[in-house]
Amino acid sequence: MKKSFKITARDLKSSARTGVITTPHGKIKTPAFAPVASQGTIKGLLHSQLESLGAQLMLVNSYHLYLRPGIETIEKLGGIHSFISWEKPILSDSGGFQIHSLSPLVKVKKQGVEFTSHLDGTRIFLSPEDVIDIQRKLGSDIMMLLDYFLPFPSSEEKTKEAVELTTYWAQRSRTHFLKQESPQLLWGISQGGIFWDQRNKSIEDLMELDFDGYALGGLGIGEPKSQFMDIVEKTNEVLPEARPRYLMGVGYTSDIVKTVAAGVDLFDCVMPTRNARNGTLFTSQGRILIKNKKYENDERPLDDNCSCYTCQNFSRAYLRHLYERQEISSAILNTIHNLYFYLDIFRKIRQAIQSHSYQQFMQSIIDKEEE
Amino acid sequence: MKKSFKITARDLKSSARTGVITTPHGKIKTPAFAPVASQGTIKGLLHSQLESLGAQLMLVNSYHLYLRPGIETIEKLGGIHSFISWEKPILSDSGGFQIHSLSPLVKVKKQGVEFTSHLDGTRIFLSPEDVIDIQRKLGSDIMMLLDYFLPFPSSEEKTKEAVELTTYWAQRSRTHFLKQESPQLLWGISQGGIFWDQRNKSIEDLMELDFDGYALGGLGIGEPKSQFMDIVEKTNEVLPEARPRYLMGVGYTSDIVKTVAAGVDLFDCVMPTRNARNGTLFTSQGRILIKNKKYENDERPLDDNCSCYTCQNFSRAYLRHLYERQEISSAILNTIHNLYFYLDIFRKIRQAIQSHSYQQFMQSIIDKEEE
């Protein structure tokens, strides 16, 4: 695989590191956060706003885009970057998670996955090769393998099967991917739930195939925090140091800083954007539920320490008014704030690692979230 | 009243003129368009975006803001400009129209209007003096009188009553307004429907009271176009030249350019913003219904001749995708385009009047709309 990752600094007291992922559409400084743009847009935000918040990449969803507007449409329009007019890196999720969470009647077969479109009931079959082809047509910078995602809790027996099938699909995906020259990066997704033997096996299988990056899938889905951290810390011992690591779907800031200390480089989560639309706002002093009547006459910004457009211009009272009136600008202003909050934490994570103050920074985030 | 309006150029072949309205929060070059921000926000747009589209003022609605968040809240937060963080001119509508269009069980009495809140059924009474006080507390730059609005069609008998009551309320409003020094401007609203005798009487009554500006209310609500134009043209003969004229709620671009030729200086309408959210987009080549399947693979911008952010960056295919997915960014991008389209027409109207080419410009707009 390609030499797409370079480590630029290391924390002396943990496995936290800063690095750079080089993609066909530019570089991503890690640790990095990928805002979720399932349909090719951040909900509530224009690309220009996302860029000025400091986002380095966005995550789009192959499953959603495959169903609508369809891959042929996107291909005709020059691929995903051209279709959505975003010239920075794009990571495309394979859809493994969405097939299992959105579709009724999923049948996992050795040859691939058969499922019903959650939109119109059409029966669809996708092989691991199909999922590669879809993402190739999208032209995303980072492609993800089709994996076999299991909910929590699942038995070890079932988890073992899922790992075996994920490995088998990974082999087929890689073989298919290598048939054509491509500047795109291909990352593996490990499964195994919270069973270390299975997780370890999954990672070893993927490493043998050699991918451009390694994701941890099927975590942060309801398992106890201690087991979650235990697994992430153990993967740190076995994953290749020189490849980027991606913890999928994990969004609590305390989990983020702790797993960065266990060597994780990339995150994505709907938390900042979904919470924004629901009126839950993250601040340096804790969460604010903006619909609360106590903010009715509150002329302070959401967060005195925040430099975002929302906090620089608007009071809690006005934001509450917009939320209560269900104005579109409520979703926009809240999303700007929450995404700024997240992206700013990642800027600070990178700075702290480079200035050898990561331990204090991590502790301050954990202390605030535990308040 | 104050010297708040200055005419800066005149069309030689019509009554079209350019001018400047001076308000406590700055100047408005006329003819001007006031985007509608009923709740203190343009639906789908941030203030910063509205400003960069070239908006000179916004219209807020006293009725909506009185009900929620309440005038006391806005007053505590320093008035409407401070509450919504918009430092440019604000025109507040009196609520006369909303009381009649939104509230069930309206009783118009000599002393004022009694109505039921459309939100929670509370019975509310507002006198003309109350409506002045509400707008004084808001601190808007241009305040509108409480008027007695009638739907179309209404009998001449009923219209005569409405004119008499509007005049009576106008007297009381003016007397009350003059009790306190204020930098705010107070504009009258004439009624009279399409009955010239009534409309003429209404205007004469208001002129006798002397207001900072004169609005035409109760037009563009379903009456035949020829009668509508006839009335506007006749008002042009009687309204004082030296005061700004405001045609409320009229939004078809052909009506706008024709009534500018009859001396109208100010307009407001929800058309560009509401249509944007419904996927109807205005272009120099006519309207586009973006949900139409024929745009599925259309890589052209909405309008080749448009310089807005939407047209400079995105294809019809992507805009259709966002609209079909009901993404918030669909409303945002469409609103940017439609408001840019409207504000650009007003820029061109002003340029055309000043460069003595208004007749050709007006005809080009009429020809396009009639296509």
Instruction: Tell me the helix content of chain A.
Output: 40-55%
Q: How would you name the oligomeric state of the polypeptide chains in this document?
A: homodimer
For the secondary structure, the number of strands of chain A is: 16
Q: Count of DSSP helices of chain A?
A: 15
Largest interface: A-B, 39 and 39 residues
Tell me, briefly, the overall form of chain A.
Answer: globular
Structural class of chain A: alpha/beta
Kindly report how far apart the N and C termini of chain A lie: 44 Å
List keywords for this structure.
three-stranded antiparallel sheet; homodimer; 15 helices; alpha/beta; globular; eight-stranded parallel sheet
Task: Briefly say what this structure is.
The structure is a homodimer of 371-residue chains. The first copy, chain A, has 371 residues and is α/β, with parallel strands linked by helices. Helix content of chain A is 43%, strand content 18%.
Task: Describe this protein's structure.
Two copies of one chain form a homodimer. By secondary structure, chain A is an alpha/beta fold. The first copy, chain A, has 15 helices and 16 strands. Chain A has helices at residues 47-52, 62-67, 71-76, 80-84, 96-102, 128-138, 156-178, 196-209, 225-238, 253-260, 271-277, 309-313, 316-324, 328-354, 358-370, and strands at 5-10, 17-23, 26-30, 32-34, 58-61, 90-93, 107-109, 112-116, 123-126, 142-144, 185-190, 213-216, 245-247, 266-268, 280-283, 286-289. Chain A has an eight-stranded parallel β-sheet. In chain A, strands 1-2-3 form a three-stranded antiparallel β-sheet. The longest helix of chain A is centred in the last third of the chain and has 27 residues, at 328-354. The first copy, chain A, is globular and about 60 Å long. Chain A starts with a strand and ends with a helix. The model of chain A has no long low-confidence stretch (mean pLDDT 96).
